[in-house]
Amino acid sequence: MIRRRFLIAFTVLLAVNQFQAIAQVPNEPVDISRGVPQFFIDDWLVDNRYAIKYKTNAVVHAVHPPKKHDANPVYSGDCGYVNVARHPESGKFQLWTQVHYWVEKPSGRSSRYAIAYAESNNGLNWDAPNLGLFEWNGSKQNNVVIRGPKNARASGPQILLTLPEEQKRGFTYVMTYRTGGAGKEHDGIRLIGSHDGIHWDTDSEVRLKHVHSDTLNSIVFDVDRKRYLMTCRAKDRYRRFQGLMIDTGASRRISFLTNDELWTEWQGSPQALLTPDEIDSQGHYNFFYGMPVHHYAGIYWGFLWVFRMNDPIHTELVTSRDGVHWRRSPKRVPLIPLGEDEAWDDGMTFGGPHWVEVGDEWWFYYAGHDGGHNTAGRKAAVGLATCKKERLIGLHGPQNGGGVVVTRLITWPGGDLFVNATSTGDAPQLSVRVSDAIRDPFEGFDHADCVSFPGDAVRHKVTWKGNKSMTAFEGKVVRLEIYLQNADLFTLVAE
């Protein structure tokens, strides 16, 4: 009997000690910046997520593709890859696109490429001004703004939106583009500046890298790591087999380079970044045509052009927190899918390198084609797809019983808690519990105290009974436990 009591006591003591040990395991809190949205594109901020009822759907990531605009196509004519930004002062929409024409030669047909310009007051109705800057296809009556060195190819324009001001060298716009056909000393990925987006300063122009990458090559600045990231292709490198050059599309892989400086020749060789996998191969999408990238709120947003060789191309969203390790979207849902049969964009969709923020919406411009990659005589135009800001990927709580998203420990930076969320449909619920390291709720901040949120808001302020708010937790370490029933959570932000 004494021995049994001893064993029980020892077991209890051991369990207590184990619990204390578990409770004391270091769990470094996450530091978040005030005013910066925290995205639920992955589980970086999530400690756990689960359904309340075990025989129901879990809390899952879901892609929310932007909706194609009813006015599509919004810009027609000769156009290819497209890039849209807004003037920082006037708010005017400005568009740069790749244009081309064919030249018949005794040796065969070859193409000419240049970069053209258009503008709009509302982003829907566009004007292609007659600029008369360059001769193009036998005339100066055109909207061409950039031709390559020696009038060689100029293609794949991207306006660099996230540059520090000191890196702009006094220019309002900095653009990267590619040249080809001008000789080894000129061909490659280039950088150039402009004050108005129309007249580009050739004296500022530098060649960043001599690499065969006939796609839209993208450069972004990582504010956190103080470096530049370039996504490109390395065609010569990836199409060799046993010393021979092969033309099977095997070179169509996404590669990358990094550099500490921008206006200089980049060193090193492109390294493999993304290659098709088993899921891609099931649909024979074994090639990646390109991947423009945008950097926003500490996240790299990649618009991956997924390619079935010489057939369709569509745009898929991929994300990364370091620019090297990328997460494909759940179920590979296209961000900008192909249009219906016989539609103007039923063959290819090339998503642009970033979105344009208009009010509480994100506007995505894309180049659409009415035929696949190898379709003779296909036509191109520019389309628009829109969504509420920050709502490309989120967490969805099931309808039957709901589910909970438990964050990692967070050092609250101050301010109120806002969520970007929808809580609509049948029996929706969204509530937030503020708890400590071992998930004990702070008094007055449990789910039952939270003011319910039925609705749809890009910035919904979360409060608790008595008008309590998160301002009381400035500098404190907390967890947020978010209950979702038939609701979607996209971001949270301290403001």
Task: Explain the overall architecture.
The protein contains three helices and 38 strands. The chain starts with a helix and ends with a strand. The protein has two domains: 27-63 and 393-494, Jelly Rolls (Sandwich), CATH 2.60.120; 67-388, 5 Propeller (Tachylectin-2, Chain A). The chain is elongated and about 80 Å long. Mean pLDDT is 90; it is low at 1-26. The strands form eight sheets. Strands 1, 3, 32, 33, 35 and 37 form a six-stranded mixed beta sheet that branches. It has 495 residues and is mainly β. A hairpin with a 5-residue loop joins β24 (313-320) and β25.
Kindly estimate the percentage of residues that lie in beta strands according to DSSP.
35-45%
> CATH class of the largest domain, please?
Mainly Beta
Q: What is the gyration radius calculated from CA atoms?
A: 26 Å
- Average of pLDDT: 90
Look at the helices and sheets and give the structural class.
Answer: mainly beta
Low-confidence stretches: 1-26
Distance between the termini: 62 Å
Please name the fourth-level CATH homologous superfamily of the largest domain: Glycosyl hydrolase domain, family 43
Shape from CA axes?
elongated
Task: Give the oligomer, counting copies of the same chain as homo and different chains as hetero.
Answer: single chain
- The structural domain count equals 2
Look up the CATH topology of the largest domain.
Tachylectin-2, Chain A
Total strands: 38
- Main beta sheet: strand number and arrangement? 6 strands, mixed
| Range of helix content | under 10%
CATH architecture of the largest domain: 5 Propeller
| Number of helices, counting only DSSP H or I runs of 4 residues or more | 3
